[in-house]
Amino acid sequence: xxxxxxxxxxxxxxxxxxxxxxxxxxxxxxxxxxxxxxxxxxxxxxxxxxxxxxxxxxxxxxxxxxxxxxxxxxxxxxxxxxxxxxxxxxxxxxxxxxxxxxxxxxxxxxxxxxxxxxxxxxxxxxxxxxxxxxxxxxxxxxxxxxxxxxxxxxxxxxxxxxxxxxxxxxxxxxxxxxxxxxxxxxxxxxxxxxxxxxxxxxxxxxxxxxxxxxxxxxxxxxxxxxxxxxxxxxxxxxxxxxxxxxxxxxxxxxxxxxxxxxxxxxxxxxxxxxxxxxxxxxxxxxxxxxxxxxxxxxxxxxxxxxxxxxxxxxxxxxxxxxxxxxxxxxxxxxxxxxxxxxxxxxxxxxxxxxxxxxxxxxxxxxxxxxxxxxxxxxxxxxxxxxxxxxxxxxxxxxxxxxxxxxxxxxxxxxxxxxxxxxxxxxxxxxxxxxxxxxxxxxxxxxxxxxxxxxxxxxxxxxxxxxxxxxxxxxxxxxxxxxxxxxxxxxxxxxxxxxxxxxxxxxxxxxxxxxxxxxxxxxxxxxxxxxxxxxxxxxxxxxxxxxxxxxxxxxxxxxxxxxxxxxxxxxxxxxxxxxxxxxxxxxxxxxxxxxx
Amino acid sequence: xxxxxxxxxxxxxxxxxxxxxxxxxxxxxxxxxxxxxxxxxxxxxxxxxxxxxxxxxxxxxxxxxxxxxxxxxxxxxxxxxxxxxxxxxxxxxxxxxxxxxxxxxxxxxxxxxxxxxxxxxxxxxxxxxxx
Lengths: 595, 131
Fold this sequence. Notes:
Strand order of the largest sheet of chain B: 2-1-3-4-5
Shape of chain B: globular
GO molecular function (chain A): 4 iron, 4 sulfur cluster binding; FMN binding; hydrogen dehydrogenase (NADP+) activity; metal ion binding; NADH dehydrogenase (ubiquinone) activity
Distance between the termini of chain B: 30 Å
Distance between the termini of chain A: 60 Å
Domain 4Fe-4S ferredoxin-type (chain A): 538-567, 568-595
Structural class of chain B: alpha+beta
Low-confidence stretches of chain A: 101-105
Mean pLDDT of chain B: 87
Keywords (chain A): 4Fe-4S, Iron, Iron-sulfur, Metal-binding, Oxidoreductase
CATH class of the largest domain in chain A: Alpha Beta
Number of domains of chain A: 5
Largest sheet of chain A: 5 strands, mixed
CATH architecture of the largest domain in chain A: 3-Layer(aba) Sandwich
Protein name (chain A): NADP-reducing hydrogenase subunit HndC
CATH superfamily of chain B: Glutaredoxin
Shape of chain A: flat
Helix content of chain A: 25-40%
Number of domains of chain B: 1
Order of helices and strands of chain B: HEHHEEEHE
Helix content of chain B: 25-40%
Oligomer: heterodimer
CATH class of chain B: Alpha Beta
Number of helices of chain B: 4
Number of strands of chain B: 5
Enzyme class (chain A): oxidoreductase
């Protein structure tokens, strides 16, 4: 028994609500009626992430992609496609009314993702150099060693428009050029893999899925700037990524792609791994270099920039993991190809770790210029539990919140900065109406208090003071003047801090104050947290009309402070309640009320 | 392998590429590919991997199937993820493949040549290397 066709019916929440279940049943019925149920299997699948055009039906192996399918279309799909082997053209997806129907080659029309950095992630075995080589691996290195002069490599990277993916967005080609022009025999290439934003895991996944792309890019960078040695600075809490890097380095050395006289070109390059202890500030390039040198990781003023005076005083290029992963593709496909992707000033793609209150959390890569709405609603499948969207935090503790009205802004370094956030390394945390802006700001500020290195006063004192004010507000003890103080300290920190940790630490607070000042005032004036996140402002009660007296909440209560007879309404003793919310989540009848 | 020269690397790449493509197209091998980034492993990919190997033994499929690992496929909300590539069947990515579904995967997909309900997901983007 072997099926000739497979019909996949999207069983995602969105499609299900538009009758995909009925389509599924009709397809099975029609297949039986037309006597082809042995030729076709009808399968329910997960979400295809193209919910706006749902319900989606896909037929394999022909890859026919049908959109906005109705239950009555089932007959035609079976009769035409399965019986006669012809596609139902009127149901095929097309980009607009004029264009031809889209088939396999046009898949990018509906797939909003475009994978350059993640090209091998989830495709090759990351522990096999052979598979990397088979998929054009080390081809860019061949070009860099035998076909291009160092100046040509730099010109190509400059022409591609590639900018640093670590957050600030400095043009990579210019960085390389500055290091090349700096006088000195000894130069270094450093890969910054000290990813530390809460909720971000782009770099870890890239290294875990495709370690050789980083090694190849570092050798190319070495060739371009005239360096023969490189360090990968990675945090010790990424054991699998470190393990795979070690395997990759050993394999590359064995094949002669690292070490002395690479591929007989006469060029030497070697790479060593340096483990960081997980300090957030060591993601800042000057602090990172201090840490590699064995000193305490603290930033120093710039200039001199590392490209002039870096590791051990030598010219050094520091590139983030994601930046480097782009390099081999820039060389193999050419600067023109790369520069055609993205917006005018932000070229190529960006990887985001999409998390928070989102249905399809995941590691995604989209062309620059994609809107946040496309990311959150088309790729991410919308907000969990059908709740209302509140905002999205980009750039982690250094970024700001972006709200509904700005969701249609095409993503670029400039546009996110203009919205009071930043590109950052690519963490993207989606918040719903169940999140409280005071609570979120307090969380990020607590993170910055912990991670501030303490070298400069604005950051050391400013983060602590801002945290104190946010904590006060979250406990219902805030005053209206506190909001002005927050803004004042925030502005001072932004201007006066030594590095970007302090310089951006106020962003979450300042941006939420701008968009959600009313919620801060609610905490201060009404002692109320509408999301119910600020524990001290929440009161749990039981609605006697809804309580059936099942006793589940009383059994879950860790204090315990819930009493009541069986089958009679229970009562919460507010004086003992620790506001853990266990009763609220436990109750199946909505009888526990959060105020 | 000893250190390579440029010519050797080029010849080697061509050979490996054909090997990889042949496996995919003519499909002499059945490949079961488990996403094993930290995210996948945290969601139980190692247990899934072991359970698939055990199920293959049980159903006498072990000599026909290669079980491989790969990095993160990007579908964090449905980890662990498993891709199956085999002759006569379209390549499919399965999500939510916890170890208890492993045997169902082997029996239904590999032995009976049919797809599993409620576990199929889409590869998130076109492959720029193959294109």
